[in-house]
Amino acid sequence: MKFGLAFPYNHTRYTASWAQQAEEYGWDGVFLGDAIWCEDPIVGLAAAAAATTHLQLGTMIIPTPLRRPWKLASESIALDQLSGGRFIMGLGTGAVWMGWHGFPDAVTDNKDRATILDETIDILTLLFLGKPFDYEGRHFHLKLTQLDEIFYPPKPKHAPRLPLWVPAIWPRETSLQRAIKCDGVIVEKRSPSGTDEAVTPQDIRDIKKHVAENRPADAPFDIVINGNTAGMSPNQRQENFAQLQEAGATWWVEGLWDGTPESVPEFIRQSPPTLT
User: Which of 37, 205, 236, 249 is the most interior residue, by most CB within 10 Å?
Assistant: First the structure.
């Protein structure tokens, strides 16, 4: 299992330095969030890419209703090239409660946002192939058969596309089916009443089994847990991570969403756990 850090919003000036420290102390990846009104994560990750050599860089997550798919493709290919193929793009429908009410033109209908996410995944997959195609969706329309290929950017380092992660609410079938079309799932869990619950090792086993039954065996797929271990003792953290790894989780991303310029470097210096 790999270990990553999700840096707090709106601290771009520190991102390169924090990423450099994370690489030095053995972390596997760093991730930045996106919202309807915040410092742009792609810009921050570009700075991190220039300051590191092997650290994975990702978004967690980009709300697709706020960005055109071809703009996302352009930005992600640039970051993929700049980082030498280290970019992972996390995509989602977006958290409407994070200020969307201040922007009345934003798409807030749940079904529309889900459709935009589905169409964005389809379009990105086609754009990354670097071949002409036409697309007729509900929200997006492309006529790349009419575009000369001299205008195409390079293909991403990863073939056939750079890795796409999307959240899925376990055990909702539709949510997980969308993730299976991608390259990884950021697992969330809800109770029948809709409250957040901790993801258990058994949940991971069930998800891993479902993925294996519905996806080609040779296609890599990440199972990502985003959480916070504040308040846990070192032994509790170690036991928790060991159980998740045994169940099949491939990433733990520590959410430092409330971190400060003082607390984030302090956590980075703790280094990730060592699991056998």
Answer: 249
Backbone angles phi, psi at 95, to 5 degrees: -95, 105
Query: CB of 70 within 8 A of CB of 123?
Result: yes
Other Cβ atoms closer than 10 A to 59: 26
Size of the chain in residues: 276
Q: In this predicted structure, what is the pLDDT of residue 174?
A: 84
pTM of this prediction exceeds 0.90: yes
Spatial distance between the Cα atoms of 62 and 152, rounded to a whole number of angstroms: 23
SS3 annotation, the chain:
CEEEEEECCCCHHHHHHHHHHHHHCCCCEEEECCCCCCCCHHHHHHHHHHHCCCCEEEECCEEHHHCCHHHHHHHHHHHHHHHCCCEEEEEECCCCCCCHHHCCCCCCCHHHHHHHHHHHHHHHHHHHHCCCCEEECCCCEEEHHHCCHHHCCCCCCCCCCCCEEEEEEECCHHHHHHHHCCCEEEEEEECCCCCECCCCHHHHHHHHHHHHHHCCCCCCCEEEEEECCCCCCHHHHHHHHHHHHHHCCCEEEEECCCCCCCHHHHHHCCCCCCCC
Residue 174's alpha-carbon distances to 112, 170, 249, in angstroms, are 15, 10, 21
The answer to whether 32 and 6 are in contact (CB under 8 A) is: yes
Quickly count: other Cβ atoms within 10 Å of residue 143's Cβ: 11
Low-confidence ranges of the chain (pLDDT < 70): none
Return d(Cα 175, Cα 168) in angstroms, integer.
5
What is the token pair recorded at 9? 């919003």
pLDDT of residue 80: 96
Q: Is 166 exposed, middle or buried (0-12, 13-18, 19+ CB in 10 A)?
A: buried
